[in-house]
Amino acid sequence: MTETKIKEEMEKMEYEPLLPIEKKLIGWSLILGVVLLVVLVWVSYTFFPAGH
């Protein structure tokens, strides 16, 4: 019963596009995630070469 209420409330909501600042935050988060992943791989290969 709770799922049906949630579904009904979601259907009543109006569409709200993302604000420009929200788009920037999403972009910066993705960029930061990729950069940190590259740093993690570099640290792994540099300081722990035995596993590779």
What does this protein look like?
With 52 residues, this protein is mainly α. The protein has a domain at 24-52. The protein has two helices and no strands. It is elongated and about 55 Å long.
The total strand number stands at: 0
Main beta sheet, described? none
The radius of gyration is 21 Å
Structural class comes to: mainly alpha
Are there runs of 5+ residues with pLDDT below 50, and where?
A: none
N-to-C order of helices and strands: HH
Distance between the termini: 52 Å
Question: Looking at the structure, what is the overall shape?
Answer: elongated
List the SSEs and their pairings:
Elements: H1 2-12, H2 20-47
Provide a brief overview of the structure.
With 52 residues, this protein is mostly helical.
Jot down its keywords.
52 residues; mainly alpha; 2 helices; 75% helix
